[in-house]
Specification:
Layout lengths: L2 H14 L13 H12 L5 E9 L12 H4 L3 H4 L1 H12 L5 E7 L12 E7 L5 E7 L4 E8 L4 E4 L10 E3 L2 E2 L9 H14 L7 H20 L3 E2 L5
Helix pairs in contact: 1-7, 2-5, 5-7
Length: about 230
């Protein structure tokens, strides 16, 4: 639920001599891996702007997702992690600053959590990520635009099935697996067998919780929040 609990989990697993992995299936999804490869290759030059968003409409005012004690904090805790990961993983960098805005218009449904949260990451090198998550409309998109008029797009990007990718040169020639979790579980088994830290490690989960806390702080205060990754 917060960075303190995340750190406690990491330390408990280290003390017990066991592996800890976060259920980030998209670490192993072929379209996301291809997008990362293309960005790293810099075919269109450095990345300038990223758009990363995930949202859907929550059914009814009594949904568990709207109960902060049960659901954790609304769309930013539930779906926001995908948008955060999309931006972070595309660049293979962590943001240095964040600004954010939170909105609630439907006060009948959204009593304890924000209806929508928008935020902006600034990354080393000057890349800006414009991100958003919501429980009141559908969006599922990761768009990366570069210096030389080129771009990459996944849409849908974060759904468990049916990912699709295209670039300014044409469609990504990538097959979408029927079950994304297979590669994820295989990788975790291999990390246990080889006694190596999983790629989707507990530290990755800690980073995302730290970013969520910074996003909410920025939204509540109206200030730009600087991120200190040494603490």
């Amino acid at each position: 639920m917060n960075t303190t609990e995340a750190r406690q989990m990491i330390l408990a697993c280290e003390k017990a001599g066991v592996q800890l992995s976060v259920g980030y299936r998209l670490y192993f999804e072929p379209h996301h891996l291809e997008l990362r490869r293309l960005v790293a290759a810099k075919e269109f030059g450095p990345v300038k702007v990223i758009e990363s968003a995930l949202g859907f409409t929550v059914p009814g005012p009594n949904s568990w997702r709207l109960d902060k004690k049960i659901g954790g904090g609304g769309a930013i805790m539930d779906l926001g992690v995908y948008a955060i990961q999309g931006a972070r993983r595309a660049l293979n960098l962590d943001p240095i600053n964040v600004t954010a805005q939170a909105f609630t218009y439907d006060k009948e449904h959204f009593k304890d959590v924000h209806e929508m949260v928008f935020w902006q990451f600034e990354f080393p090198g000057g890349t800006i990520a414009d991100c958003r998550t919501t429980y009141s409309s559908y969006v599922d998109r990761l768009y990366v635009t570069c210096e030389r008029w080129g771009w990459y797009k996944l849409e849908p990007a974060y759904n468990a099935t049916g990912a699709q990718g295209v670039t300014s040169k044409g469609a990504m020639d990538v097959l979408s697996p029927h079950y994304q979790q297979i590669a994820q579980m295989d990788a975790f088994v291999q990390s246990i067998r080889s006694n190596t830290k999983p790629e989707a490690s507990g530290e990755e989960g800690w980073k995302d919780i730290k970013l969520i806390e910074a996003i909410l702080q920025a939204a509540e205060t109206g200030r730009k929040i600087q991120l200190d990754w040494k603490s």
